[in-house]
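Continuing the batch. This is chain 6 of the set; chains 1 through 5 are on the previous pages. Same settings as before, nothing changed between runs. Recording input and output for traceability.
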Amino acid sequence: MAEESETPIFKKTYDLYKAFYALRTTIPKQDKYTIWQKSESLLIEILEGILSASYKPKFEKTPILEKISLKLNILKMLIRLMKDVGAIDNKKYVTLQEPLDEIGRMLGGWIRSTTNK
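Output for chain 6:
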């Protein structure tokens, strides 16, 4: 999916989902249907929110982006928890955490740009 209309934050999140999905087979069964599934759902909701916000007028973006920011923070916490309980190793954690941090910075910039008058 490489449309010209994609925003950089959407592309980064889309790529993160692909990396996240590729790790699915390495997740222990006991974690796959709990913390992993919740994390995957949040990541899809974040993708949907970013796409939705990109089509809204500037004054309607802020509430959507703030909800996305909260979901992103929850996702970061769940991924850290997966590392701490041993569902993913440190290398996989870094693979996921680095793009999450970049998406967070991009999202923060987008929120600031929608609240500036």
